[in-house]
Amino acid sequence: MGLMDGKRGIIFGVANDMSIAWGIAQQLKAQGATLAFTYLNEALEKRVRPLAESLDADLILPCDVSNDADIEAVFETLGKEWGSVDFVVHAVAFANREDLKHGFSQTSRAGFKLALDISAYSLVAVTRCAVPLMTDGGSIVTMTYLGAVRTIPQYNVMGVAKAALEASVRYLAVELGEKGIRVNAVSAGPIKTLAASGIANFREKLKLMDDRAPLKRCVSQEEVGKSTLYLLSDLASGVTGEVHYVDAGFNVTGA
Ligand code: NAD
Question: Residues 95-120: pLDDT tens digits?
Answer without folding.
Answer: 999 999 899 999 999 999 999 999 99
